[in-house]
């Protein structure tokens, strides 16, 4: 087997490691490509290709994450991971760990960890690597890695919801939610939302927004109802899709270009959180991306949504 063939056999694993460390599809793909360049340039043949490449992609990802942390501190508004439609790596023996760790909620919890804690947690808790391999990957002793793993696990456990819905329940509830959204059934939407539901958007300052966050059943229901009306006006469609292992949707304009994505956190029989990603830089891997700023200038979307939320009865789209 050639080096290129060895690498391709492990590409999905390497991407999955990098994505969980970085929370970015594009940065994970770059980390995998850098790993290949280093492997191709290496003059030695490792005893375990899997261990070698996993260590390289981990080190590359840690370096990228350290520099990304600085940029994220200056990010405009809330920061979310790039939405992932399909995790390319499969391991039947670790399917639960893989599914849980790729959710938006889990990735946001991982953001609380230091880069080393995050890498150790991903390698140990998600992919089941031994501490000797982890120590080699992050350049720390086995004892230090065990301590990092304990701290990371504690932080992650503290932030997890206690009762999560099973997959079938999530999919059924999400289907009802998007059906209600398509027809603007505000009462139907409200029945599916938790009393303390949140709607949070990541635009990065590069897409229209009225506010970054809406809290509570009444506020979120009004926002979604207003968005449904505006969505119909621009001829949009919503495609229900699994996003980061959980129910979600891709919103497109009349030409089929991507406007944004939503992911739904569902437990206790209700939608607890809706996370919207509209930053075009985070959507390019999903297909052609709409120019939402231009669309907003043309159709006055945020202005009319603000009027809707204020209770003003003026006709949508009417200028002053």
Automatic annotation (TrEMBL):
<feature type="domain" description="RNA polymerase sigma-70 region 2">
    <location>
        <begin position="7"/>
        <end position="69"/>
    </location>
</feature>
<dbReference type="Pfam" id="PF04542">
    <property type="entry name" value="Sigma70_r2"/>
</dbReference>
<dbReference type="InterPro" id="IPR032710">
    <property type="entry name" value="NTF2-like_dom_sf"/>
</dbReference>
<dbReference type="InterPro" id="IPR013324">
    <property type="entry name" value="RNA_pol_sigma_r3/r4-like"/>
</dbReference>
<dbReference type="InterPro" id="IPR014303">
    <property type="entry name" value="RNA_pol_sigma-70_ECF"/>
</dbReference>
<dbReference type="InterPro" id="IPR014284">
    <property type="entry name" value="RNA_pol_sigma-70_dom"/>
</dbReference>
<comment type="similarity">
    <text>Belongs to the sigma-70 factor family. ECF subfamily.</text>
</comment>
<comment type="subunit">
    <text>Interacts transiently with the RNA polymerase catalytic core formed by RpoA, RpoB, RpoC and RpoZ (2 alpha, 1 beta, 1 beta' and 1 omega subunit) to form the RNA polymerase holoenzyme that can initiate transcription.</text>
</comment>
<protein>
    <submittedName>
        <fullName>RNA polymerase sigma-70 factor</fullName>
    </submittedName>
</protein>
<keyword id="KW-0731">Sigma factor</keyword>
<dbReference type="InterPro" id="IPR007627">
    <property type="entry name" value="RNA_pol_sigma70_r2"/>
</dbReference>
<keyword id="KW-0805">Transcription regulation</keyword>
<keyword id="KW-0804">Transcription</keyword>
<dbReference type="InterPro" id="IPR013325">
    <property type="entry name" value="RNA_pol_sigma_r2"/>
</dbReference>
<dbReference type="InterPro" id="IPR013249">
    <property type="entry name" value="RNA_pol_sigma70_r4_t2"/>
</dbReference>
<dbReference type="InterPro" id="IPR036388">
    <property type="entry name" value="WH-like_DNA-bd_sf"/>
</dbReference>
<dbReference type="InterPro" id="IPR052704">
    <property type="entry name" value="ECF_Sigma-70_Domain"/>
</dbReference>
<feature type="domain" description="RNA polymerase sigma factor 70 region 4 type 2">
    <location>
        <begin position="105"/>
        <end position="156"/>
    </location>
</feature>
<dbReference type="Pfam" id="PF08281">
    <property type="entry name" value="Sigma70_r4_2"/>
</dbReference>
């Amino acid at each position: 087997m050639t080096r290129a063939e060895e690498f391709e056999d492990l590409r999905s694993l390497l991407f999955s490691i990098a994505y969980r460390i970085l929370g970015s599809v594009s940065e994970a793909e770059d980390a995998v490509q850098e790993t290949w360049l280093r492997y191709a340039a290496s003059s030695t043949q490792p005893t375990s290709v899997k261990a070698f490449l996993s260590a390289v992609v981990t080190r590359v990802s840690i370096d990228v994450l350290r520099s990304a942390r600085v940029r994220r501190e200056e990010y405009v508004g809330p920061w979310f991971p790039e939405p992932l439609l399909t995790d390319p790596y499969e391991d039947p023996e670790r399917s639960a760990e893989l599914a849980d760790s790729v959710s938006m909620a889990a990735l946001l919890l991982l953001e609380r960890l230091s880069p080393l804690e995050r890498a150790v947690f991903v390698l140990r808790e998600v992919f089941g690597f031994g501490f000797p391999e982890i120590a080699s990957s992050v350049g720390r002793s086995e004892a230090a890695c065990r301590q990092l793993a304990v701290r990371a696990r504690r932080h992650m456990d503290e932030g997890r919801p206690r009762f999560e819905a099973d997959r079938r329940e999530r999919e059924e509830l999400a289907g009802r939610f998007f059906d209600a959204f398509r027809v603007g059934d505000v009462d139907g939407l409200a029945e599916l939302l938790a009393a303390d539901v949140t709607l949070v958007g990541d635009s990065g300052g590069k897409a229209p927004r009225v506010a970054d966050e809406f809290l509570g059943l009444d506020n979120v229901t009004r926002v979604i109802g207003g968005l449904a009306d505006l969505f119909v006006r621009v001829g949009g469609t919503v495609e229900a899709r699994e996003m980061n292992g959980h129910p979600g949707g891709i919103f497109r304009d009349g030409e089929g270009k991507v406007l944004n994505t939503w992911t739904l956190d569902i437990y206790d029989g209700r939608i607890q959180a809706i996370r919207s990603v509209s930053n075009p830089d985070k959507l390019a891997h999903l297909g052609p991306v709409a120019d939402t700023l231009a669309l907003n200038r043309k159709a006055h979307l945020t202005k009319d949504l603000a009027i809707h939320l204020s209770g003003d009865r003026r006709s949508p789209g009417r200028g002053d």
